[in-house]
């Protein structure tokens, strides 16, 4: 009898030794092998993270499925981690690979292919984008189109129009393929449906990424039903078929000395003899997809947030309009050189990016080797996220962080000052957002155009609902289905 008890206790002790969290890891939730710590479903992911931060401080882990997830709430740690090559890679997740054996494009790729594509995309954005007349002109055109479409619903409560999506997609199309669609163009409707199908089906991929062993035990039809692997594959191929048509058109009229857009530049690059080249037509399709995926709805949602916030904060809206009226003749959109004359507008844009934290948890990185953050061991393969939304509310950097206060960006001399340590809406470090400059330009121009033309208010007797939509666990999207009133300014 005693022998069995001792043996049983020894087995339990050994099991506990094997299953317990190694002591050199950051504190946090460990749970069971294969499934990790399964959270209570009635709380949002962000509320869970807030609880963990209160309990453990600026760095903690949460084993989700088979992965050790490391969360950083401290801007210094986030900067240190994401400027280090130890955390430069994306995890080999379906959400980044979209069914490819080795991910392509720029958002999900790693190594030489990522380096080449990132450099290429940044160069294109610089050459075709920032400050260049063609893209500024496209942003002006799209801003004017947006204003015209909103005028059609002026004076009554209504949802913001579909034209806002058309505008941002058109700006990416201008840069990528020298194309712009009309709001009613059936090709555009088809394209938008394709984007929506892919975005919708991608949500369930996270289940597969956290529990990859499901692939070994479930028959394919059931796996597809749960994780939507087949839907993503179909949507992706539909998307790519469309890109291939546009690429084929470009090939017919390619002038290597006068690239019109990113596709021309990539095709020219592809023809060069370069032993380090990673170019391929499939990679180009991925790159285009990444720019749409990362660069269209993000700027639309930021502009929607701007309208909803300023509708609830009439004092800020009036002050912004006063500055616009003083500096720019009504109906004139600024060029980038006008920015220094619009410090309050700049401040409003920055404060909005801070308080809304669209990319609330950034994009995941993976540790490429056993390494350290904040004195803790981070094993190779751990997934790292910086909790941007909480860094943007950290009282070490922000007084009254829950207040929408553009004045915090204005110096005693009345100048705009962008330097704030705890500000990172576009991420930080080696994978910082490639489209930051373009996004800033779009949001700035759209803000000027919209608030020159309209005063926005909530519907009578209501306030705009400024809570993020619950449909996205890792980002802060506005609740698009609510109505707002646009009054044409006299
Ligand atoms: C308000 C709008 C935007 C926000 C808040 C935003 C935010 C971000 C964030 C947080 C990341 C992840 C950084 C990391 O991995 O640590 C990112 C990556 C990226 N963004 Fe943006 N972004 C915006 C607009 C755009 C636009 C307009 C484009 C391009 C047209 C773009 C292209 C990209 C790309 C390609 C990456 C991946 C970079 C890489 O992995 O090397 N983004 N963005």
UniProtKB/TrEMBL annotation:
Family: Belongs to the cytochrome P450 family.
Signal peptide: 1-20
High-level lineage: Eukaryota, Metazoa, Ecdysozoa, Arthropoda, Crustacea
GO cellular component: cytoplasm
One of the protein's GO biological processes: xenobiotic metabolic process
PROSITE patterns: CYTOCHROME_P450
Protein species of origin: Scylla paramamosain (Mud crab)
Protein name per UniProt: Cytochrome P450
Highest taxon of the lineage: Eukaryota
Binding site for heme: 433
Keyword Calcium: no
Keywords in alphabetical order: Heme, Iron, Metal-binding, Monooxygenase, Oxidoreductase, Signal
Cofactor(s) the protein requires to work: heme
GO function term, MF aspect, one: oxidoreductase activity, acting on paired donors, with incorporation or reduction of molecular oxygen, reduced flavin or flavoprotein as one donor, and incorporation of one atom of oxygen
Keyword Iron: yes
Pfam families in alphabetical order: p450
């Amino acid at each position: 009898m005693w022998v069995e008890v001792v043996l049983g206790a020894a087995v339990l002790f050994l099991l506990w030794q094997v299953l317990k969290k190694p002591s050199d890891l950051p504190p946090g939730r460990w749970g069971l092998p294969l499934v990790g710590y399964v959270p209570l479903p009635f709380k949002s992911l962000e509320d869970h993270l807030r609880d963990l931060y209160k309990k453990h401080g600026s760095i903690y882990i949460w084993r989700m499925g088979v992965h050790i997830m490391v969360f950083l709430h401290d801007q210094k740690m986030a900067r240190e981690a994401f400027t280090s090559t130890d955390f430069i890679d994306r995890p080999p997740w379906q959400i980044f690979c979209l069914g490819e054996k080795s991910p392509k494009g720029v958002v999900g790729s790693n190594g030489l292919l990522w380096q080449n594509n990132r450099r290429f995309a940044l160069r294109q954005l610089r050459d075709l984008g920032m400050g260049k007349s063609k893209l500024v002109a496209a942003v002006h055109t799209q801003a004017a189109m947006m204003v015209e479409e909103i005028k059609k619903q002026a004076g009554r409560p209504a949802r913001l129009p579909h034209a806002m999506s058309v505008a941002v997609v058109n700006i990416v199309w201008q840069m990528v393929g020298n194309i712009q669609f009309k709001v009613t163009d059936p090709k555009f409707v088809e394209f938008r449906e394709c984007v929506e199908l892919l975005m919708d089906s991608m949500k369930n991929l996270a289940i597969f990424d956290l529990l990859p062993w499901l692939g070994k035990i479930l028959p394919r039809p059931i796996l597809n039903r749960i994780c939507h692997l087949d839907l993503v594959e179909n949507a992706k191929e539909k998307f790519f078929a469309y890109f291939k048509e546009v690429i084929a058109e470009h090939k017919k009229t390619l002038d290597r000395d006068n690239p019109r857009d990113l596709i021309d530049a990539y095709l020219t690059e592809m023809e060069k003899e370069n032993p380090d080249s990673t170019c391929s037509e499939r990679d180009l399709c991925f790159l285009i997809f990444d720019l749409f995926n990362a660069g269209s709805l993000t700027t639309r949602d930021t502009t929607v947030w701007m309208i909803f916030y300023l509708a609830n904060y009439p004092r800020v809206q009036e002050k912004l309009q006063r500055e616009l009226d003083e500096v720019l003749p009504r109906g004139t959109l600024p060029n980038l050189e006008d920015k220094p004359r619009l410090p309050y507008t700049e401040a409003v844009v920055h404060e909005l990016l801070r308080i809304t934290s669209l990319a609330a948890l950034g994009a995941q990185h993976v540790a490429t080797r056993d390494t350290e953050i904040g004195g803790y061991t981070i094993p190779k393969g751990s997934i790292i996220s910086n909790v941007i939304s909480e860094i943007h509310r950290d009282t070490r950097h922000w007084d009254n962080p829950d207040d929408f206060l553009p004045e915090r960006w204005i110096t005693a001399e009345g100048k705009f000052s962008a330097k704030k340590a705890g500000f990172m809406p576009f991420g930080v470090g080696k994978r910082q957002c490639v489209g930051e400059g373009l996004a800033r330009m779009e949001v700035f121009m759209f803000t000027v155009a919209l608030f020159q033309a309209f005063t926005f208010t909530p519907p009578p007797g209501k306030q705009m609902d400024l809570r993020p939509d619950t449909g996205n666990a890792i980002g802060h999207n506005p609740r698009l289905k609510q109505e707002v009133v646009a009054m044409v300014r006299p």
